[in-house]
RNA sequence: GGGCGUUUAGCUCAGUUGGCUAGAGCAUCUCGUUUACACCGAGAGGGUCGGGGGUUCAAGUCCCUCAACGCCCACCA
């Protein structure tokens, strides 16, 4: 620390904060100081946040900037409040997403598939990618100023996390909460993997509805020759194993009719019409279709068979309520292996499953002559052939919902596969209970509902992923042909020298096909023996392989490892000091789309593994949309790179902007602009221009490139940044703060540290202390309640309107008075110091820089006691809240000054007076108002070039004056020789009209008997007082107008 | 189909438990470089609070209803 400097040259401090120079320097200072690192310390309370680990798929976007800004605000405030604050950083391996981007690159750059490389090589390539992107991501977080404990950086696929994953998997396997089963999965034929339900999006597309006729074998009596079924996916007919009709169509029609009638009772008039129409349609349909449907039902019950065309398979007609008599022909084809609903029907009716598809989306042997075709090609072929055989009844155009893979943007094919599942029953219940009894609190509370609803379904969690990038499932399996073989294998395993009952668990999975003959026919085992191995045990693993067992190829769902994040990162299953001290963590800050995927699963896994919740509070922040209300994404071209914002506006502006818009709503909008790299002109993004590879600047007409640039010519152009002018507010605020501090630096020469003497306090000092106490309290509360926007707004208003516009302005006068100067300097040092602390969590760089500068001039400061300031703001204590300074009286008195000043300025502006032309004024008011107002005389002079002539209850207004009539003050500006009568008349007329309106409404209220009888007395009284004041005002204004004529 | 959210000034948003003439920033207009700041200062214009109905002495705020937009969940051969 340097000693106090007596003078400072204005040129020493630039009038703009050079953030690009300062950011890296200050960040290094913090990091070198070890301020981000937290060690268990029994003398301090812990405060812990684990970062939602960003996917290593790509660089961070604005949503991450929001998410991480909020976490850093919490962490920095808590650190200043004396907590031992740990922010645990890291990244997520993001299985499918990451493997997909690397595979895509492999294909584009080397024209290879993953199979050309093999598992090991591909995984090595993905690690390279991970290293690169992890570096970029962590670099971005650092640029944003995030104060993470980098020494603890984790990765969901690193050894520490892998150990936790295996322990958890083993534990659940051991408790029989993990099992293998057949399940129709969402198969992405492009990525050749399953995709979770959450990664499937339904898209509405224009499609067709084909009506096929399946011949009835040996129709009898009145039975039809064909049964008609309709489908949007004709190729699946190759896997049909039945056609279903409703078991009781009459009852089904009755039920629909009664439901509609019921609905009619509560429906709005607009809906009633539609319902009536529906009712009629059902009635007609019942009349026309019922006989036919009953015949079909009887056929099904009689065991009548159909001939499936093209593949010539004999399939039954079955009854199942899935077939809706009110739809189509009332018959539905059943393809159990390729449709989730049909799968259920198949289970109920004991139908065979015929899988017609290979993993790459081509047809297999079961498809007969269509083998080898892709599903899409098969569609055309099947339709053509059906038409050729005369069995295509008709084709309709229709909008269809098509499930699409969110990752590959290709259609999803339902596909039957062996999958591992986590049984959710008891786990989900425990996680629901934790929220119900508030061990985990979710803010805003409305999100509790989506959490509870989702868990309430208790659907088992499919955790297998057909990928190479991830935690490979630690299970070795072998099929056995008989119970004896199972028992033999079991004893062989248990007899292994390497076998340890503590670290290995055995499960027997009986095959779903219980008929031995069918099993033999299909080559299925009687049962499969699975061995789960807890931790890397190479000896046991190789012994199992010796026994012919094969390791599961699949890896675990990414969310499985993410679910362990709050404890795996702290060393669990080891009982590390960190785990004991920092767990459970304090707060989780994340966005709503992963409440179920991530938040819920962390809670249940935390409870399962540690019997304690992973965090006490969850804050769900809004999602960022662009100016059109669309989510931002790279693929749309409306995404903003935080680094572009940082470069243009500074990291503090990015952070301030983010905090400023974090309200409790669920979406926030940020209109997006392009910035021309040639002339820095910005212009709005449109849905059209945001997808173009190059653009011409409307300002300078020069071309620049965008993220879509692909040709060499395009790429050689300078790149235009994508930013938003919404950050200008924040940048301007920082500039204001910077310059206020610059003013302080220029005026703290000769500063001498000493406690503040209370008798030296002026009204504006007391006002500032009152405001400071109020704002400190309020901002603290708001940050703690996650009201980031409110807190930020309050700080903005306080710093700009109170501190800069008034307090600093008034200090200017006081610095010129040698006797007042030392006290004024101490107050300035003290208040600026407090303001910096309050702002630091939001804008850490600029406040730290100012703090460092302040230390050069006023190294020791304080209010009651003077002490050397902390060497760094990041570790300075959070402001003490001196509530005894809060004074409504002082604020009221100061408000009188502000109102008078505003009035003087208004007259100046309306009268168009030259800025330095001094005016004189007098004020009529009660003596109690006059007493605190008189000492402000010099400020009226410096801030409005107005000289106070006299003040009090009995003053005589100047002969020619402009009056401002306020409820408790009348201000008369002397306009002798200056008056612009036209302007003044206009002003007064307008004022009179305004007040007259007010009087009219108040009179109406007060003469309303009901109001007088029902409104609370204090409201009535308030109206009365206001009316009296307004009437006085009106009188004064009328007089002034009369004088002007 | 179920749920959640949003709709207030040209734009982005505040507006506590209903209660003085609905606020801020940006943009617009007028004036102004007074030695912290033009990324500034002073002033001004601009809103039938999405539509309709209701409760109340009083509705931006509470209730009903309709509409638009956004998100989540379920589901449609």
What is the overall shape? elongated
| Percentage of residues assigned to helices | 40-55%
Fraction of residues in β-strands = 15-25%
Radius of gyration: 38 Å
Biggest pleated sheet: 4 strands, antiparallel
Indicate the mean pLDDT: 86
Derived structural class: alpha+beta
Number of helices: 33
How far is it from the N-terminal to the C-terminal residue, by CA? 69 Å
Strand order of the largest sheet: 6-5-14-16
Care to count the β-strands?
37
Poorly predicted spans = 1-5
Would you kindly provide a written description of the structure presented here, covering whatever features stand out?
The protein is an alpha+beta fold and 1045 residues long. It contains 33 helices and 37 strands. The strands form 13 sheets. A 4-stranded antiparallel β-sheet has the order 6-5-14-16. A 4-stranded mixed β-sheet has the order 10-11-9-12. A 4-stranded antiparallel β-sheet has the order 19-20-18-21. β27 (673-675) and β28 form a beta hairpin. α1 (19-32) packs across α27 (844-857), α23 (728-747) packs parallel to α27 and α24 packs antiparallel against α25. The radius of gyration is 38 Å and the shape is elongated.
Short synopsis of the structure:
With 1045 residues, this protein is of the alpha+beta class. The chain is 45% helix and 18% strand. The chain binds one RNA strand of 77 nucleotides through strand 8, strand 12, helix 12, strand 26 and helix 23.
Labels describing this entry:
18% strand, single chain, four-stranded mixed β-sheet, alpha+beta, RNA-binding, 45% helix
């Amino acid at each position: 620390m340097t000693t106090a400097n007596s003078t400072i040259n204005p040129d020493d401090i630039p009038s703009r904060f050079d953030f690009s120079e300062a950011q890296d320097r200050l960040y290094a200072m913090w990091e070198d100081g070890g301020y981000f690192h937290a060690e268990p310390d029994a003398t301090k309370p812990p405060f812990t946040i684990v970062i939602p680990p960003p996917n290593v798929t790509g660089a961070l976007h604005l949503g991450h900037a929001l998410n991480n800004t909020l976490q850093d605000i919490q962490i920095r405030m808590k650190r200043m409040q004396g907590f031992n604050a740990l922010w645990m950083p890291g990244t997520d391996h993001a299985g499918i997403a990451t493997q997909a981007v690397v595979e895509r690159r492999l294909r584009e750059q080397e024209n290879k598939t993953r199979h050309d490389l093999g598992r090991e090589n591909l995984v090595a390539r993905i690690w390279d990618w991970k290293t690169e992107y992890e570096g970029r991501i962590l670099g971005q977080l650092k640029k944003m100023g995030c104060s993470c404990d980098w020494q603890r950086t984790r990765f969901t696929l690193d050894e520490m996390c892998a150990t936790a994953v295996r322990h958890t998997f083993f534990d659940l396997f051991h408790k029989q909460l993990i099992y293998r089963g057949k399940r129709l999965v969402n198969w992405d034929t492009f990525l050749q993997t399953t995709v979770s339900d959450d990664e499937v999006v339904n898209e509405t597309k224009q499609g067709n509805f084909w009506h096929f006729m399946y011949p009835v074998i040996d129709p009898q009596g009145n039975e039809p020759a064909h049964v008609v079924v309709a489908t949007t996916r004709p190729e699946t007919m190759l896997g049909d194993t039945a056609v279903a009709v409703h078991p009781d169509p009459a009852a089904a029609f009755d039920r629909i009719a009664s439901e509609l009638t019921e609905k009619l009772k509560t429906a709005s008039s607009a809906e009633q019409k539609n319902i009536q129409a529906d009712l009629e349609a059902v009635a007609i349909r019942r009349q026309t279709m019922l006989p036919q449907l009953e015949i079909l039902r009887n056929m099904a019950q009689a065991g009548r068979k159909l001939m499936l065309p093209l593949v010539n398979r004999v399939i039954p007609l079955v009854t199942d309520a899935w077939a809706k008599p009110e739809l189509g022909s009332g018959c539905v084809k059943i393809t159990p292996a390729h449709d989730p609903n049909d799968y259920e029907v198949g289970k109920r009716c004991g139908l065979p499953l015929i899988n017609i598809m290979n993993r790459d989306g081509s047809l297999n042997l079961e498809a007969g002559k269509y083998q080898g075709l892709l599903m899409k090609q098969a569609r055309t072929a099947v339709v053509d052939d059906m038409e050729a055989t005369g069995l295509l009844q008709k084709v309709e155009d229709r909008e269809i919902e098509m499930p699409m893979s969110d990752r590959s943007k290709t259609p999803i094919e339902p596909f039957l596969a062996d999958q591992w599942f986590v049984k959710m029953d008891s786990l989900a219940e425990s996680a629901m209970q934790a929220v119900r009894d508030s061990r985990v609190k979710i803010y805003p509370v409305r999100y509790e509902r989506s959490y509870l609803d989702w868990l309430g379904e208790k659907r088992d969690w499919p955790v297998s992923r057909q990928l190479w990038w991830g935690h490979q499932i630690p299970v070795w399996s072998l099929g056995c042909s008989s119970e004896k073989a199972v028992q033999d294998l079991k004893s062989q395993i248990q007899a292994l020298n390497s076998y340890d009952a503590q670290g290995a668990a055995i499960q027997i999975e009986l095959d779903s096909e219980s008929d031995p003959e069918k099993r033999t026919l299909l080559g299925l085992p009687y049962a499969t023996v699975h061995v789960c191995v807890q931790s890397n045990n190479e000896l046991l693993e190789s012994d199992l392989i010796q026994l012919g067992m094969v390791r599961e190829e699949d890896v675990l769902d990414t969310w499985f490892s993410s679910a362990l994040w709050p404890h795996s990162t702290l060393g669990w299953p080891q009982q590390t000091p960190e785990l004991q001290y920092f767990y459970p963590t304090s707060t989780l800050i994340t966005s709503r789309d992963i409440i179920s995927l991530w938040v819920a699963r962390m809670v249940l896994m935390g409870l399962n593994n540690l019997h304690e919740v992973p965090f006490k509070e969850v804050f769900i922040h809004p999602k960022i949309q662009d100016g059109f209300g669309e989510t931002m994404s790279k693929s749309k071209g409306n995404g903003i790179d935080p680094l572009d914002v940082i470069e243009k506006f500074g990291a503090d502006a990015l952070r301030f902007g983010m905090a400023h818009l974090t309200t409790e709503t669920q979406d926030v909008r940020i209109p997006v602009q392009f910035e021309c790299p040639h002339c820095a002109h910005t212009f709005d993004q449109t849905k059209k221009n945001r997808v173009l590879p190059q653009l011409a600047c409307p300002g300078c007409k020069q071309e620049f490139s965008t993220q879509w640039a692909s040709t060499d010519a395009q790429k050689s152009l300078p790149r235009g940044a994508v930013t938003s002018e919404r950050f200008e507010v924040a940048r301007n605020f920082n500039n204001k703060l910077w310059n206020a501090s610059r003013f302080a630096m220029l005026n703290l020469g000769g500063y001498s540290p000493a406690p503040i003497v209370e008798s030296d306090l002026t009204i504006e000092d007391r006002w500032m202390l009152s405001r400071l106490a109020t704002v400190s309290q309020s901002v603290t509360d708001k940050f703690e309640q996650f009201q980031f926007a409110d807190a930020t707004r309050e700080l903005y208003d306080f710093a700009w309107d109170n501190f800069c516009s008034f307090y600093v302005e008034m200090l200017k006068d006081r610095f010129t008075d040698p006797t007042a100067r030392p006290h004024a300097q101490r107050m300035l040092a003290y208040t600026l110091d407090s303001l910096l602390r309050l702002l630091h969590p939001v804008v850490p760089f600029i406040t730290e820089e100012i703090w460092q500068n302040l230390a050069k001039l006023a190294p020791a400061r304080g209010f009651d006691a003077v002490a050397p300031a902390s060497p760094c703001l990041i570790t300075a204590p959070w402001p003490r809240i001196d509530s005894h300074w809060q004074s409504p009286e002082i604020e009221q008195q100061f408000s009188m000054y502000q109102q008078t000043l505003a009035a003087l300025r208004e007259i100046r502006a309306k009268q168009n007076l030259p800025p330095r032309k001094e005016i004189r004024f007098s004020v009529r008011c009660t003596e109690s108002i006059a007493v605190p107002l008189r000492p402000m005389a010099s400020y009226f002079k410096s801030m409005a070039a107005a000289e106070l002539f006299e003040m009090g209850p009995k003053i005589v207004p100047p002969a020619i004056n402009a009056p401002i009539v306020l409820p408790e003050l009348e201000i008369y500006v002397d306009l002798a020789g200056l008056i612009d009568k036209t302007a003044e008349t206009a002003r007064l007329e307008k004022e009179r009209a305004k007040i007259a309106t007010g009087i009219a409404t108040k009179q109406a209220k007060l003469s309303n008997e009901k109001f007088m009888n029902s409104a609370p007395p204090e409201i009535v009284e308030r109206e009365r007082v206001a009316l009296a004041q307004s009437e006085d005002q009106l009188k004064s204004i009328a007089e002034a107008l009369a004088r002007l004529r």
